[in-house]
Amino acid sequence: MHRGEAVVIKRLQDPTHKLGDEYTLSSRPCPPRCIHPFSLGAGVETIGELELLDYLVAASEPNPAVLVIDSRTEDWTSKGIIPGSRIITWQTLKTDTSDPLTVMSLLEDDFNVDTSEALWDFSEAKTLVLLCNGIWCNQSPQNIKTLLKLGYPAGKIKWYRGGVQSWVQLGLPLVQP
Predict the structure, then answer these.
(1) Quick one: pLDDT at residue 106?
(2) CA distance 28 to 43
């Protein structure tokens, strides 16, 4: 589901289709756009496209226990997002670029964390699947590192390492946010 409407996710069947310019560039300045390791932290699972599809289905259920997060900035998300994902830019969650009330609100309202006590309760927290542009992009890794610092359980964090670049390389659809 995307914005309340069903979306069929299937590979493009046009054998003449070419990638757009956004994902054909093979060289990006490092830092900040360095290739990331396969694992971002102990207990954080790195997933591929088939697993992401399962999480997208779970995220579209009523009262979902899963949230798929696109961590990219507006200049990237305006070009299209993976259907069923929700935009929460990396700056919104990063504690040194966002305000504490915004971060706390995300934890409570969107991630289902109980922050009413001195020690936060993550027992009912959603499983978060984070993605950005691809293995060279630092936006979802930044969010994952922030979540881990805040105490979010690593077992409830998944990382789609291939990001939108792998998604479009496979001919899978993007939708407008």
Answers:
(1) 94
(2) 29
